[in-house]
Amino acid sequence: MNKENSITLQISIFYLFIFILLNIFVLFQFKVSYLIELVLIDILLILFYIFLLKKLKVLTIQKEKELINSRNLFLRNIMHELKTPITKGKIVTNSFDDTKKRTVLSSVFNRLEFLLNEFTKIEELTSGFIKLEIKSYRAVDLIDESLDMLLLNSSNSNINLKINKDLKIDVDFKLFSSALKNLIDNAIKYNTNDKIEIIVDKNSIEIKNKGKKLKKDINTYYKAFNRDYEKSNDVLGLGLFISNSIIKLHNYKLEYKFKNNYHLFQIVF
């Protein structure tokens, strides 16, 4: 039981106790002649009790907002402070003559930068302050952008793309492309066949790959830091969480099916 519920329960028990005692006292002392007064007192007590509960709720909400704002400010400051040494580290690394050392250090700083970007996305999505810049974009441009993030292109031999090039979707370009990127990346990593399929129509975007059946319910894999599905060294188990959160922000829905040994992730508009 959290602190708010505990305080509410204590107040409820206290007023219930007073309420019962007062009723017993009035009934035994004054009998029925003061029944109207008793009812009025009861009503006043109930109204006062409701007022206290509302006041408690307002104070609790204000406290929660203060804590959330403090947390967000703290996280943003940390992430901002980390960016400078990572950037400087990458610059210094490029000046090394030793190729092996340069490669190792470059990999380390790239990894740190990747982690920082992932945590930045998490902070933005969970803070509740993110603002979408919704515009109408061609679906093919969104797919191309997501593939560019993966250093791929639509003509890649491992991708079978079926799309109406004139179809447009109302989205935040940067965020939605990132959601697509994560879904496509997972499909490629866990594909047991030669190709993945990306199918786009007026109602949905479907990403399909052959693979083994998931061991748990799909909602388990939508949680942050779940590495049962995302076991690659390049991820923290955040990909599906980030994609699902972004899709929800757009008031779209991410649906999942496993059919004939194929994983089907579908963004429904």
UniProtKB/TrEMBL annotation:
EC main group: transferase
Q: Which GO terms describe its molecular function?
A: phosphorelay sensor kinase activity
Endoplasmic reticulum as UniProt keyword:
no
List localization entries: Membrane
* Enzyme Commission number, as recorded: 2.7.13.3
Q: Which InterPro entries match?
A: ArsS-like (IPR047994), HATPase_C_sf (IPR036890), HATPase_dom (IPR003594), His_kinase_dom (IPR005467), HisK_dim/P_sf (IPR036097), HssS/ArlS-like (IPR050398)
Topology relative to the membrane: Multi-pass membrane protein
Q: What reaction gets catalysed by this protein?
A: ATP + protein L-histidine = ADP + protein N-phospho-L-histidine
- Keywords from the named record: Kinase, Membrane, Phosphoprotein, Transferase, Transmembrane, Transmembrane helix
Main localization, broad class:
membrane
Q: Which residues cross the membrane?
A: 7-28, 34-53
Write down what this protein is called. histidine kinase
Q: Which organism is it from?
A: Poseidonibacter ostreae
